[in-house]
Design a protein that fits this description.
Helix content: over 70%
Order of helices and strands: HHHHHH
Distance between the termini: 30 Å
Largest sheet: none
């Protein structure tokens, strides 16, 4: 019963934080014409914030290991930032283009890995490394396809974005490796 109460408290907190964060663009829309969100923008942003916060709340309640928790926080934060940046301005070029759809493949690798790993540290380690590799692969494919020639893009920017998002996944993978090693030494 106590676990249910903690869960409902955590979800209530995540809901409150989501609503508070959605107030920022809502208030900005009242003050400046430069911020123009429609209902779809609010729904998408609310879903992303609530989803990330809910997953974080559940994992933080179910695992006590500091390294596991740190790996999850890094992975969720990196994924959230990658999705938001890609939707807001695009990771390749400035604005929407087909090259940015490759990052959907990165999310597919991540989600498949999470499912297959069953959130066990060894599987999470492999999932994070595979996700880091898929980010680098997306950047490499983008360069091979000439996406770096789009307005607002360059080889350096594509490589920079690839490194910016792959490195945290690699760090998360290392944290899960430490956690799995610690668990193996205990048993």
């Amino acid at each position: 019963m106590e676990k249910k109460t903690k869960f409902y408290r955590a979800i209530s907190f995540v809901t409150l934080i989501t609503l508070i964060l959605l107030l920022v663009p809502f208030v900005a829309m009242q003050v400046t014409p430069e911020v123009r969100w429609d209902l779809a923008d609010f729904v998408l942003a609310g879903t992303l914030i609530f989803g990330a916060g809910s997953v974080l709340a559940v994992v933080l309640q179910s695992h006590t290991s500091v390294t596991y928790r740190a790996g999850v926080i890094i992975a969720i934060g990196t994924t959230f930032l990658m999705i938001v940046a890609n939707l807001a301005v695009g990771l390749i070029g400035s604005g929407p283009n087909a090259g940015n759809l490759m990052y959907g493949g990165v999310l597919a690798v991540l989600l498949a890995g999470l499912y297959l790993s069953k959130f066990k540290p060894v599987g999470m380690e492999r999932t994070m490394f595979a996700t880091a590799l898929s980010v680098l692969l997306a950047g490499g494919i983008a360069i091979m396809l000439g996406e770096h020639q789009l307005p607002g893009s360059s080889v350096i920017k594509v490589v920079g974005v690839s490194l910016f998002f792959s490195l945290p996944y690699g760090v998360a993978g290392l944290l899960f490796r430490v956690d799995s090693t610690d668990q193996a030494s205990v048993h």
